[in-house]
Design brief:
Largest sheet: 7 strands, mixed
Structural class: alpha/beta
CATH superfamily: Vaccinia Virus protein VP39
Helix content: 40-55%
Radius of gyration: 18 Å
Shape: globular
Strand content: 15-25%
Number of domains: 1
Length: about 250
């Protein structure tokens, strides 16, 4: 009989990638995860957000962008390419609490890249930014950690912030299970991916978390992006641009 799962509440399930493992094991898993991200267009919502920001005037120069929980760094490399194609000056910083993840990110990044990699808790090591984003990270966090992150992003991001994560729905769960049943994936990918979907969010979860963080719901956007992403955004604010020089 097929497994019966309740998607009404977040599941609290341990993921193998969050446990102890060797550098080589983590690196190989992150490589496969980066491929999955490309396959399911995981970074598209963030690139669309950046395009909305870029269409706002004025923009700070350079635009300081921080990626929280950057992992393998594949999203920042996409952002760097996106900015170069549009002639947008950026300062890119990837922050992660996992030193081995940052090591893998550095090794996967071309020598000419100017991305900075910072080890630590972003809420402690990053003092200022124009834009803050995070992708596929918050489902690894507790509710208290997410609330603290939201409050920090709201205080720190001068222009806008954007959270991209999974949408806790049965259809994505089943499709991911079929997608990863075969194909020689890293041993963490299938089990952790299914757990990640069960640990992720629906809109009501984000409404609750934003309220807990003291955020004004009138300035927060919660939207679904297909396939299977649920994103939270504080849209660009004119007030956030300050007196920085413009493009």
């Amino acid at each position: 009989m097929p497994e019966t799962i309740d998607f009404a509440e977040r599941a609290w399930l341990d993921e193998d990638i969050d446990g102890p493992c060797s550098y080589e094991e983590l690196r190989d898993c992150l490589r496969h995860l980066a491929f999955i991200n490309r396959l399911v267009l995981a970074h598209r919502p963030i690139l669309q957000w950046l395009q909305r920001v870029a269409s706002s005037r004025p923009l700070p120069r350079p635009l300081r962008i921080v990626d929280v929980g950057c992992g393998y760094g594949d999203m920042l490399r996409r952002i760097e390419k996106w900015a170069a194609q549009r002639g947008i000056a950026v300062e890119l910083t990837g922050v992660d609490i996992n030193a081995n993840g940052l090591r893998a990110a550095r090794e996967a990044t071309p020598p000419h890249s100017r991305i900075q990699w910072v080890h630590g808790d972003a809420t402690s090591v990053i003092r200022e930014a124009d834009l803050i984003t995070t992708c596929g990270v918050t489902h690894h966090m507790t509710e208290a950690e997410i609330v603290a992150l939201l409050a920090w992003m709201q205080r720190t991001a001068r222009v806008s912030w954007f959270i991209c994560d999974l949408h806790r729905r049965p259809v994505p769960y089943r499709i991911f299970g079929l997608l990863t049943r075969f194909g020689g994936w890293h041993r963490f990918i299938r089990s952790d991916g299914l757990r990640s979907i069960r640990r992720s969010f629906i809109a009501e979860d984000w409404q609750h978390l934003c309220a807990q963080a003291g955020l004004d719901p009138s300035v927060i956007s919660i939207a679904e992006y297909k396939p299977a992403r649920l994103c939270v955004e504080r849209p660009p604010s004119r007030a956030g641009f300050g007196s920085s020089s413009t493009l």
